[in-house]
Amino acid sequence: MERYRPPIGTSIRALDTPCLLLDLDALESNYRTVAQAYGGAGVKMRQHAKNLKTPILAQLQMRAGGTVGGICTAKVAEAEVMIEGGIQDVLITSQIATRDKLARLCGLAHRATVAVAVDDPRNLRDLAEVASELGVTVGVVIEVNTSMGRAGIRNHERAVAIARLASDLPGVVFRGVMSHQTLPGRPDRGTRFREGTRFLEQCLAAKKAIEAAGIPVPVVSTGETWTYDVAAMVPGVTEVQGGTYALMGTNYTYMEDFRIAAKVLASVVSRPDGQTAIGDVGVRALAGPGGVLPSLEWPPPWGGPAATARPEVVALGANHIVLRYDGMMPLGLGDQFLLISAQQDMLVNRWDQFIAVRHGKVEAV
Q: I want to staple 254 with a disulfide (CB 3.0 to 4.6 A). Which of 65, 79, 186, 239 is the partner?
């Protein structure tokens, strides 16, 4: 079945629902914030494409400025799409272990500058062997575990040993170190800076240990949206792996420098009683981590029905959503409403296209 593709200039009110909207004004505001923050700084953005899934949006940030001129991805398949879309510098931030994916990874190095995270000598040797067989050189960065408790080296001795091995093996070149960290809840600015600095310093400590062994460490790739401003004030950090900032979600609205750009447009298809409305979108098209329900944007940007409080999302089925209101539901049959996900990674992964809108009309698909 042919995918619905609205003509340019179509009004939001005329769109077939449900659909994933991209608020271009919000996106461009987020990109300007990063460009201004990093324009004259030593640290630059290496935007994470796992949040975007399309090279078009990654290229928009590179054109806006403040970047290393490349991106990072979570896996080989994303790197393939980005390089096919014209991106020339990609860091894969997960370990790639199987030989078939190592071959795909190394094959990309024929067309672009490619690097990958490592934390294991055997994996590094396998990567070097495949790269040598294919006649390419792949960059490696050592992942440092700071707060995630998953991949990444746990001590500096292992970091030094892997850096030495990478310096000696053919087919690979040692680039530096990287880390990723999270902070639960809705931290205030003081907490962000205190905890963010602590995590970034843990990554920098691995850098210093490797340098003490006589091995240069040109790249320290760390940080994320919640430390985008912290990283700019920590000497030694060279690039930030920010992703959430581009599209945003309700989990990150404490980062007030950024606006929510990804939203799902839906319509009311049933009014079973005066306080309840049923919408035409469900979990198959709208997901949140740990079952977190989406929120309505209220009031709708096009005006819409007036209400002193927004309707609440109370349930999400496979293909429907249940809204409730303490009083007479302001949404009627056929009315549209906008939903905002807690996290955009899972949301965007459910869709094949963005419908990019500005001033209430479709500007691009």
A: 186
